[in-house]
Amino acid sequence: MAQRTIIITGGNGRLGAEMARAFLRRNPEDFVWLTVRERRDHADQVATEFPNRCACITLDVTKPDAWKKAVATIAERSKTIDVLINNAGRHEDSLLATMSQESWSSVIAANLDSVFHGCQAVLPTMIGQRFGRIINIASLSAIVAPAGQTNYAAAKAGVVALTQSLAKEVARIGITVNAVCPGYVETEALNSIDAQELEAIRQRIPMRRLARPEDITGAVLFFASQDASYVTGAVLKIDGGLV
Amino acid sequence: MNEVELREQIKSIMVENLMLKITPAEIGDDQPLFGPGSLGLDSVDALQLVVALDKNFGLKIPDAAKAKETLQNVSSMAKAVLAKQATG
Question: How many structural domains is chain A composed of?
Fold first, then answer.
């Protein structure tokens, strides 16, 4: 397999770090950039495990100028940008009636604006090379929006729509754009849910277990691979049969 | 590179990057790129041209107004590239 440059946002989260490991184990030629913000311990750990094949870069994914700088830094080392995985995101749940404007805007920015800015930052390079794979990590909340997540669900539904629209725009240039919608994944995002509630969730999932990060990385590896060269605009839910 | 050579190079870049089903020689210097009587390009082609002009000649097209002015035909693109080269 040829050398590929892969950017994974949200690189310090468990899912981002596991995706990096999956790429690096699968293809010895891959080079992964993990974007991080204040915390970078998990991302640094991946970089240590794969010396000279993984680097961390500080990036506020909600800021277009920060993206421009990051892409310029990446271009100093990497001739191509082959894969962008828009994985960064966060939720801040509350009922709409009591949701602050700040909570609404910041969650939309973190989950949806970030994808817009990321795609816009890498597209000139991908168009120039006439190849690219963009994989957006949406959420099951985009398909079945739960109460208390109007901001997060709206943002993730926006990511799905962005994916399908952009896929049509760039299909003939050799760029594919796909999304995955994970259900409940064993990551730090579930830390706010207490054990009793988690068990109730587990019982509602036909497979009777939460997703492990590797359940998600398999789909991401597929979308990034040559095997998926004719797949674009796809939205794949990975939820153990929940929906 | 003079303007004639530059126009020929731009036509070759267009055929290659936009995967046009014609030869560079079949593209007129002043033939419109978009609209009636044109080459029949669309907005995705325009996007690719913007990237190709930057990649091949370092010509940055920062906004839609500049794109409309530059991407009229091969001659207008060549003139923009020459103007950029003249100003360094």
Answer: 1
Q: Judge if ipTM > 0.90.
A: no
pLDDT of A1 above 70 = no
Across the interface, do A173 and B52 touch by the CB < 8 Å criterion?
no
Domain assignment present for residue A242? The answer is no
A152 as an active site residue: the answer is yes
pLDDT, one tens digit per residue, over A63-88 is: 999 999 999 999 999 999 999 999 99
Q: What is the CATH number of the domain that holds A174?
A: 3.40.50.720
Instruction: Give the minimum alpha-carbon distance from B47 to chain A in angstroms, rounded to a whole number.
Output: 8
* pLDDT over threshold 80, residue A91: yes
Look at B44 and A124 and tell me if their CB atoms are within 8 Å: no
CATH of the domain at B71: 1.10.1200.10
What is A136-190 written as a DSSP string? Answer: EE--GGGTSPPTT-HHHHHHHHHHHHHHHHHHHHHGGGTEEEEEEEE-SBSSGGG
